[in-house]
Amino acid sequence: MSAGAAALVGVLAGTALLLGSGPGRVRLPRPAGARRSSTGAHRAAGVAVLSSVAAGLVLFLDGTTLALAVIVLLCSVAAALTWRRGREQVRCRQRRAKVVEVSEALVGELRAGQPVIGALDRCCGVWPPFATVAAAARLGADVPAAMRRAAELPGAEGLGRLASAWQVSQRTGCPLAGVVDQVAVSARAELAAARLVRAELASAQATARLVALLPLGTLAMSAGIGGDPWGFLLGHPVGLSCLAAGTALVFAGLWWIDRIAASVTRP
User: Where are the bilayer-spanning segments (predicted)?
Assistant: First the structure.
């Protein structure tokens, strides 16, 4: 089998592993048994496909091509996981902004004289997952508890503060609009600070990605002056070792930079 075919097999296997690891987005809480069974079925299917592909690689590829296919497989999985992590971070930021908008909308509705249930219903138009909180209010259930359950979604942690403000209003009798307004103001300030920090970190992250691409430029220049770097990297055991170590260091560096950025911008 050629190196191109081995690379294709590796990409397909990485995709199977990615799909078998479960959905990439976070959903609202469901019954525990249903969630585990669904996730377990996806994971079992992914592992079965990956095992079949791995068996085919071992049986039909020679040592050098097998090593190349394994490297491509691991790189494709690492790239897919990095992409999913970036998408999840974007969703968290969007959800965080929506929670702030919900808090501000709730303050506006309450100050306009709307009843609590009507105000919560109108907030569902700003952020549809807030419907669980509105449903709890309509049924006479524990609204702060519903807010804390919704706050389990990544990026919706601000609903925990809103739940605490709701409880303070219930226990002390102070106007709900006032305490919710304080929560909204502080959440908006934190959101602005996080955006400023992300803007400052954007240059460092862009530099890290540029540095990760520099080895490709070096290989292209080496090939341009008459060398054969690709033949060494793809066809020699020492070259394959260098390729594996280099790609591992590249993905480790990107992961490290993303972890630093996430820890700084996390509320």
Answer: 6-28, 40-60, 66-83, 206-226, 238-257
**Burial (CB count <10 Å: 0-12, 13-18, 19+), residue 64:** middle
CA 185 vs CA 122, 128, 169, 193: distances in Å: 20, 22, 17, 12
Contact between 201 and 265 under an 8 Å Cβ cutoff? The reply is yes
Query: From residue 256, how far is each of 82, 88, 188, 245 by CA, in Å?
Result: 11, 17, 28, 16
Do residues 38 and 22 lie in contact, with contact meaning Cβ atoms separated by under 8 Å?
Answer: no
Taking residue 180's Cβ as centre, other Cβ atoms within 10 Å add up to: 25
DSSP state of 226: T
Locate the domains of the chain by residue range.
62-266
Res 138 pLDDT > 70: yes
Token pair for 184: 């909204």
**90: its two tokens:** 């974007």
Q: Alpha-carbon distance 160 to 128, whole Å?
A: 17
Are residues 58 and 66 in contact, defined by beta-carbon separation less than 8 angstroms?
A: yes
- What is the C-alpha separation between 89 and 95, in angstroms, rounded? 10
Is the pTM value of this prediction over 0.90?
A: no
Rounded to whole angstroms, the Cα distance separating 108 from 123 reads 10
For 62, which DSSP code?
A: -
3-state helix, strand, coil in the chain (%, to 5): 85, 0, 15
**pLDDT tens per residue across span 100-116:** 999 899 999 988 888 88
d(CA 201, CA 186): 23
**Encoding tokens for residue 4?**
């191109």
